[in-house]
Amino acid sequence: MVPRASRSFTFGPFTLIPERQVLLKSGEVVRLGGRALHLLTALVERPGELVSKSELLAAVWPGTSVDESNLKVNMAALRRVLEAEPDAPQYVATVVGRGYQFVAPVQAKAPVELQVEASGLLTANHNLPISTMRIFGRASAIASIRKDLEQSPLVSIVGAGGIGKTTVALAVAQGAVEDFGDGVWLVDLATLTDADRVSNAIAAVLGLEAHSPDMLAVLRAFLRNRQALLVLDSCEHIIEGVASCADRILASAAGVCILATSREPLRIEKERVRSWLGQHLRMRSQHGFNFGGRDVFAAAADHVLLAPAEIHQSALVAPNHIARVIPAPPVGFGRDLRTVQIPSI
Fold first, then answer.
1. Between the chain's N and C termini, which has fewer beta carbons within 10 Å?
2. How far is it, in rounded angstroms, from Cα 95 to Cα 300?
3. Which CATH class is domain 4-109?
4. Number of helices (H) and strands (E), helices first, in the chain?
5. pTM of the predicted model as reported, rounded to 2 decimal places
6. Comparing C-alpha atoms, which of 257, 303, 2, 49 is closest to residue 159?
7. Angle between helices 215-223 and 239-252 (to 10 degrees)
8. What CATH architecture is 139-324?
9. Which regions of the chain are under pLDDT 50?
């Protein structure tokens, strides 16, 4: 078996390098979302075998309870990329009611060399996936987060799992590509289990080939004079490692911004938090939790992107400022209906 740290999988014209979060087609980087890449990895690791829905959900959304529709959406996105050509063979077969099977021949081997500039970054200016769905009712939210990035080097989109944080973050990042001379880079941390390897995950996405016992120092030196946006997705399960890495990067790289998605804030200096609708609605303002019932209703009507707040250790959520809501379907699915209990108006 090819060691995990140096593996790649080849099938047809495609080469998947999981640890670099990269899919190549005839040597060119293919834009594919992080979840779809994780799905592909889970399938090609077991070619010809049935991989159940529950196994895929556990692999791609570890520790998170998400609706099966998320699996279907990302599988559709994966198939659109793999089977885009009219005469393309079938790569993924559906076993109705049970799961999926990768049916094309797969070769596991050492990874190919990517085209990397001498400075280290991939020659593209981003690795963002092609959007596979239309986002409804989020324009003001996306614009607000874009403005936050102009005012703060660290913006966190915080909320429950499976409610569209990543979709909104990617829309923000896509609109910011031209603002960062050294690119916008998505780092999907969903399947990373070692909090001490956050810097390695970021370095891998940036194309850094250095082998050092202190990868964070190498990464900080590389980013010191650059202008780049790092999108750190799914931080909650290794929150301390992400917070420490982000804090040190921002301390030494004035031109770098970080957009994070998580179920909880990173709680470091200069962090600006946007609370996203989920099981609970945290109403935060720069003067504390002082939103009334009208504000709750207005926020829900605007899909609940709320006023930013600097995080303080003393900040607590008062029960009378929490709106309980029915979880919404993934962003982009038909109508986005919610029932909100409003304390008072």
1. N
2. 39
3. mainly alpha
4. 9, 16
5. 0.60
6. 303
7. 40
8. 3-Layer(aba) Sandwich (3.40)
9. 1-5, 114-120, 278-345
